[in-house]
Amino acid sequence: MTRTIQQLFDLKGKTALITGGSRGLGLQLAQALGEAGARVMLSSRKAEDLVESAGVLKAAGIDVDWIAADCSKEADIRALADETIQRFGHVDILVNNAGAAWGAPAEDHPVEAWDKVMNLNVRGYFILSQHIAKHSMIPRQSGRIINVASIAGLGGNPRGMNTLAYNTSKGAVINFTRALACEWGVNHITVNAICPGFFPSRMTVGTLKAMGEEKLAAHAPLGRLGDDEDLKGLCVLYASDAGKHITGQWLAVDGGVSVISGG
Fold first, then answer.
1. pLDDT tens per residue, range 43-63
2. Orientation angle between helical segments 47-59 and 24-35, nearest 10 degrees
3. Is residue 180 within 8 Å of 250, Cβ to Cβ?
4. How buried is residue 261: exposed, middle or buried, by Cβ count under 10 Å (0-12/13-18/19+)?
5. Helix (H) or strand (E) segment spanning residue 57
6. Residue 23's closest CA among 97, 128, 74?
7. Residues 244, 237: contact at Cβ < 8 Å?
C-alpha cells in the first residue's frame, strides 16, 4: 500500500549520529531529525557544549544522548562510532558535519592549517563513514549518510575571502559524496550532501563581519541569509524514506547565491 507523505517523512524508530552537533548548523540538523522522530546522538569536542545542547533537545521532547569526540583524531572517531552503536544498537542516519575553516591568502596559507582543515573536513568524514557503514549499515543493508559541504565547494569566493583550504575541502566532500553513493548503493545506503550558503554561526562570525552581513544578504536573490530552520527540510528528506531514491546528490541551500556565481 502506498504510504502517505507523513509516513514517508516519519523517522520514528530510527537512530541518528550528528557530528559537530552541539551548535550552529549541526544542532539545527539534530533538531530536525529529532523532531521527525529519530533518536539522536550528538557529538562535538566539548562536553559542556553537548550537555547544554542535549538539554535544549530534551526540553523539546527529543530522545537524545551525547558523546564528546574530536573528529580530527582517528582514535576518537572510531571510539565514537563504536560507542554509538553500542548504545543505540545500530546507526540508521549519519550526519557528517564537524568542520573547520582557516582564512589566509593562498601564498601565505600555513601548511599546518591546511592539514588541520583537510584532516577534519575530509579525512574525518571518510573514517567515520567507513566505520559506521562497515559495522552497522552494510550488515543491515540500509543507511543514510548526509555530508555537510558548502557552496564554497562549488567554486571560488568574493575578493578578500581567502579560504582556499576550506573551499578545497568542501569540493572534496561533494565528490566524496558522489563516489561513495556509487559504491554503497548496492548496500541500499544513500549518500547525499547539503551545501549551505551563509548562515550566522560561530564559525562564520568573522567572515560576516569582514564581508558585511547586510551586503552578503543583499547579494542573494532572496535577499537574506540562512536561518535556524532552512536546513531542516532537506535534512529530513535525505534521511527519510521520502528520499529513498535520491543518492549521490548535492543541493545548495543559499538563497540563490550559487546561481549568480555559476555554481
1. 999 999 999 999 999 999 999
2. 30
3. no
4. middle
5. helix 47-59
6. 97
7. no
Q: Are strands 93-96 and 64-68 parallel, antiparallel or unpaired?
A: unpaired
Q: How would CATH label the architecture of 5-254? A: 3-Layer(aba) Sandwich (3.40)
Predicted confidence (pLDDT) per residue in 151-162, tens digit: 999 988 777 788
CA angle 61, 29, 235 (to 5 degrees): 115
Q: What is the pTM of this model?
A: 0.95
Q: Which residues are catalytic?
A: 166
Strand segments, DSSP code E, in the chain are: 15-19, 39-44, 64-68, 93-96, 143-148, 189-196, 250-253
Q: Which cell numbers in the block locate residue 46?
A: 566539548
Burial of 81 (0-12, 13-18, 19+ CB in 10 A): buried
Q: Which amino acid is at 91?
A: V
In contact, 173 and 121? CB cutoff 8 Å: yes
